[in-house]
């Protein structure tokens, strides 16, 4: 865990090497109340096996610091990892939450996976956040910005002078995240990013992924000022048309994430695995020839 100190708040960051994902714990120092953001449930696709190594490291931190976990938050339905939200909610008593538009994501993927019995009402989470909604983490004020583009339901959590911008922005030398998944939209992503960049310049931006570009150390924290000055895709001076052209060209060159078809069917269930079948084993589904053509 790497800790960042803010006024009255500590933000602990844990990077999962396997998926390049950042997981965060936001701690209100006055009350020792915490929120966990975007925790990873490990998945080994070769073995079809899940594990809780990342989530257990978060639990260790929570126990060592004697924190009360009030929230287990996701920013969106991830395409590259399974959410550990239900596991951590059960272990800590924290409430799970995600953006309210997740219902539309559930409907989209319910069709793709052909899951007619899946409840598509967001009932898998304790709370669904609307755009602009406010909540508290202990004594800290937090609010939600709807940030569609990477997915149609993505949200940014703003807590004090920190923002959790998930897969809208990456750190400045890595630009932005793709906008070509079902429900993605590069124009919407541009508008969401500009709204984040309108936060005050000293606001920290904690991103969802980093892959250590060109061998540098992984880094998840930057600031609005850094992003506006240096972000290779959206720095000041770049306009919407240029961004969209860059984003769409890059997206056309990217293969689908290794775990997308495995992860979405878990994450639209709030991070729960499918029910076991009659033989006692649970199975994932792969929609065939829906995301073709096959890569060479
Ligand atoms: Fe994502």
TrEMBL record:
What is the protein's name according to its record? Metallo-beta-lactamase domain-containing protein
Q: Which Pfam families match?
A: Lactamase_B
Which biological process terms from the Gene Ontology are attached to this UniProt entry?
Answer: glutathione metabolic process; hydrogen sulfide metabolic process
Keywords, alphabetical: Metal-binding
**Single GO molecular-function term?**
sulfur dioxygenase activity
Q: Which SUPFAM superfamilies match?
A: Metallo-hydrolase/oxidoreductase (SSF56281)
What organism does the record attribute this protein to? Sphingomonas metalli
CDD domains membership: POD-like_MBL-fold
The UniProt record lists the Metallo-beta-lactamase domain at 20-209
Q: Keyword check for Glycosyltransferase, yes or no.
A: no
What InterPro entries does UniProt report for this protein, alphabetically? Metallo-B-lactamas, Mito_Persulfide_Diox, POD-like_MBL-fold, RibonucZ/Hydroxyglut_hydro
